[in-house]
Amino acid sequence: MIEITGKKKLTPFIYRPQGDKSISHRIAILGAISGQTVNISNFSGAKDCLTTLNSLRTIGASIENVGSDVSIKSWNPKGEEVHHIDCENSGTTARLLPSILGGLNVEAELTGDHSLRKRPMGRLIEPLKFVGARINDTNGKMPLKIQRDWKLTGKRVTLKIASAQLKSALLLAALFCEGSMEVIEPKETRDHTERMLVDFGVRVDKYHNKVTVKGKQQLRAPKTYYVTGDFSSAAYFIALGILSDKKIIDVKDVGLNPTRTGFLRITELMGAKISVHNKREVHGEPMGDLEIFPAKNNLRGIDIPEELVPNLIDELPLIAVIAAFSKGKTKVTAASELRVKESDRITSIITCLRKMGVDALELEDGFEITGGNPLHGSELFCSEDHRIIMSMTIAALLAEGKTKIIDSNWVSVSNSQFFNDIKKIAPESFSS
Ligand SMILES: O=C(O)C1=C[C@@H](OP(=O)(O)O)[C@@H](O)[C@H](O)C1
Ligand SMILES: C=C(OP(=O)(O)O)C(=O)O
């Protein structure tokens, strides 16, 4: 539980995000299956990424980690036994691991916590089976049973859902397949897997929303890999910078992959001003520094362009908070994916915002917020969902009075340092 008193002094802060969560999952997995040593720096401290490291250890990968330095040493898939892997709260772990387990002929049973066991897995099993996977779900959900003897064949797979996890599962399967795998996605999603495969010496052909990877290409792992800063973790600090009265936030060394930065484009459309400095690229991933200017009085509601939704899917609850402080109406549609994340993020965020006095409406595939009402403190249950907890913390810091977040400990799923950093910006908002 954490208690936050709103409208206290905010002090200037330079935010350096931990390593990106999506990239950290991927470098651990690709590093492990490359069979070569990769020394990773700035690996994410998110509990989800530690879950991926532990899952890989369970099936024979030798991994050492000290803080954000992770060394993936070798891969030795263990013999005949059936491996039991707990993916805990991490959808990315659950969706990316099956392809490599099957590809390496490892028999396993994958399960997760109460939230992950509710999330849809049929969407993964169906295309994987289509290309030759031998895998069973439990009524479209976890536990998943990965059998041996997959015969993967490259095919044209047209995904029905815009999901980087599904696309990545097929691209990882491509590493073990005969022929060529062609994955077509309905809308552009984050492309970290494609960029990392290229960094591992794999030829990846991309044409609009189609990615093609020829099967059984050899992986040439980089000896070292630096993970760019997590844009999604930075978004909460950017939001605070936008919504404060004075300039308080600079962000350094943050990933700026355009398939992830929809949040910047949308907040700019809403009236925010953010400057990008020092743009550079590491392992094919763009990164840079950001300067955030206060814009509270210029913010106005907009309709979020549907084609951008996958590029800010994890930031949409935070957009709802920004919308609450903007003039007029903000409408999000084509975002029903939010209903199948760690919680139903449409219901979770709208329930919390309404408790604080916001004029907020659930839509089947999104939400509508009419900004301008003053927010008041409240006692909140954030559905044990890290993104809702972080979004509501930003709302609480700017609201009148006291807010209690009862399930604040779940923040560590993506950022265990979140409250330590926020306390540095708003020390008077926290009693201890
Ligand atoms: O590929 C990834 O690393 C992720 C993809 C997205 O999920 P979907 O693939 O379900 O859209 C995102 O919500 C999740 O936080 C991480
Ligand atoms: C949806 C998320 O992650 P995952 O799907 O990996 O659980 C997230 O981090 O917001």
UniProtKB/TrEMBL annotation:
<protein>
    <recommendedName>
        <fullName>3-phosphoshikimate 1-carboxyvinyltransferase</fullName>
        <ecNumber>2.5.1.19</ecNumber>
    </recommendedName>
</protein>
<feature type="binding site">
    <location>
        <position position="165"/>
    </location>
    <ligand>
        <name>phosphoenolpyruvate</name>
    </ligand>
</feature>
<feature type="binding site">
    <location>
        <position position="163"/>
    </location>
    <ligand>
        <name>3-phosphoshikimate</name>
    </ligand>
</feature>
<feature type="binding site">
    <location>
        <position position="387"/>
    </location>
    <ligand>
        <name>phosphoenolpyruvate</name>
    </ligand>
</feature>
<feature type="binding site">
    <location>
        <position position="26"/>
    </location>
    <ligand>
        <name>3-phosphoshikimate</name>
    </ligand>
</feature>
<dbReference type="GO" id="GO:0009423">
    <property type="term" value="P:chorismate biosynthetic process"/>
</dbReference>
<feature type="binding site">
    <location>
        <position position="314"/>
    </location>
    <ligand>
        <name>3-phosphoshikimate</name>
    </ligand>
</feature>
<comment type="similarity">
    <text>Belongs to the EPSP synthase family.</text>
</comment>
<dbReference type="GO" id="GO:0005737">
    <property type="term" value="C:cytoplasm"/>
</dbReference>
<dbReference type="Pfam" id="PF00275">
    <property type="entry name" value="EPSP_synthase"/>
</dbReference>
<keyword id="KW-0057">Aromatic amino acid biosynthesis</keyword>
<dbReference type="InterPro" id="IPR013792">
    <property type="entry name" value="RNA3'P_cycl/enolpyr_Trfase_a/b"/>
</dbReference>
<dbReference type="GO" id="GO:0008652">
    <property type="term" value="P:amino acid biosynthetic process"/>
</dbReference>
<feature type="binding site">
    <location>
        <position position="341"/>
    </location>
    <ligand>
        <name>3-phosphoshikimate</name>
    </ligand>
</feature>
<feature type="binding site">
    <location>
        <position position="21"/>
    </location>
    <ligand>
        <name>phosphoenolpyruvate</name>
    </ligand>
</feature>
<dbReference type="InterPro" id="IPR006264">
    <property type="entry name" value="EPSP_synthase"/>
</dbReference>
<feature type="active site" description="Proton acceptor">
    <location>
        <position position="314"/>
    </location>
</feature>
<feature type="binding site">
    <location>
        <position position="119"/>
    </location>
    <ligand>
        <name>phosphoenolpyruvate</name>
    </ligand>
</feature>
<dbReference type="InterPro" id="IPR036968">
    <property type="entry name" value="Enolpyruvate_Tfrase_sf"/>
</dbReference>
<dbReference type="InterPro" id="IPR023193">
    <property type="entry name" value="EPSP_synthase_CS"/>
</dbReference>
<dbReference type="GO" id="GO:0003866">
    <property type="term" value="F:3-phosphoshikimate 1-carboxyvinyltransferase activity"/>
</dbReference>
<keyword id="KW-0808">Transferase</keyword>
<feature type="binding site">
    <location>
        <position position="345"/>
    </location>
    <ligand>
        <name>phosphoenolpyruvate</name>
    </ligand>
</feature>
<dbReference type="GO" id="GO:0009073">
    <property type="term" value="P:aromatic amino acid family biosynthetic process"/>
</dbReference>
<dbReference type="InterPro" id="IPR001986">
    <property type="entry name" value="Enolpyruvate_Tfrase_dom"/>
</dbReference>
<feature type="binding site">
    <location>
        <position position="165"/>
    </location>
    <ligand>
        <name>3-phosphoshikimate</name>
    </ligand>
</feature>
<comment type="pathway">
    <text>Metabolic intermediate biosynthesis; chorismate biosynthesis; chorismate from D-erythrose 4-phosphate and phosphoenolpyruvate: step 6/7.</text>
</comment>
<feature type="binding site">
    <location>
        <position position="22"/>
    </location>
    <ligand>
        <name>3-phosphoshikimate</name>
    </ligand>
</feature>
<feature type="binding site">
    <location>
        <position position="91"/>
    </location>
    <ligand>
        <name>phosphoenolpyruvate</name>
    </ligand>
</feature>
<feature type="domain" description="Enolpyruvate transferase">
    <location>
        <begin position="11"/>
        <end position="421"/>
    </location>
</feature>
<keyword id="KW-0963">Cytoplasm</keyword>
<comment type="subunit">
    <text>Monomer.</text>
</comment>
<keyword id="KW-0028">Amino-acid biosynthesis</keyword>
<feature type="binding site">
    <location>
        <position position="21"/>
    </location>
    <ligand>
        <name>3-phosphoshikimate</name>
    </ligand>
</feature>
<comment type="function">
    <text>Catalyzes the transfer of the enolpyruvyl moiety of phosphoenolpyruvate (PEP) to the 5-hydroxyl of shikimate-3-phosphate (S3P) to produce enolpyruvyl shikimate-3-phosphate and inorganic phosphate.</text>
</comment>
